[in-house]
Amino acid sequence: MAYYDEIEIEDMIFNEEEGSYYYPCPCGDIFSITLQELYNGDEIAHCPSCSLVIRVIYDPEDFKQEEEGAADDTEGAAEEIETQ
After folding, report:
1. Is position 79 within any domain?
2. Residue 9 has what DSSP assignment?
3. The pTM is what?
4. Is residue 78 part of a domain?
5. Within a domain: residue 76?
6. Does 77 reside within a domain?
7. What is the CATH number of the domain that holds 17?
């Protein structure tokens, strides 16, 4: 698969209410990836308005630990990631 870009998760914007990370797309829309997708090991964020995709660079271990501790607590994972 060809990626438009590879983006560090630290460079993405996290929306705590939605449990998703966002990054601006050149088409004017926004790439998005959810915490659940990250928990599942997914690393591809899609733009809903065009065919571009980005690869999200992150440490899966940061999300795996939180999933084992509290599968329904997505805030803990986000706070841990943001403080690193």
Report:
1. no
2. G
3. 0.73
4. no
5. no
6. no
7. 3.10.660.10
- Strand order of the β-sheet with 5-8 is 5-8, 53-57, 44-46, 30-34, 20-24, 13-15
> Domain containing 25: what range?
5-71
**What would the two tokens of residue 74 be?**
């997505």
Backbone angles phi, psi at 4, to 5 degrees: -65, -40
State pLDDT tens for residues 30-77. 999 999 999 998 999 999 999 999 999 998 888 764 444 444 444 544
Domain count for the chain: 1
68 in helix, strand or coil?
Answer: helix
Q: Is 52 exposed, middle or buried (0-12, 13-18, 19+ CB in 10 A)?
A: middle
Q: What is the dihedral of CA 74, 1, 22, 51, to 10 degrees?
A: -130
Q: Cα–Cα distance between 49 and 43 in angstroms, integer?
A: 19
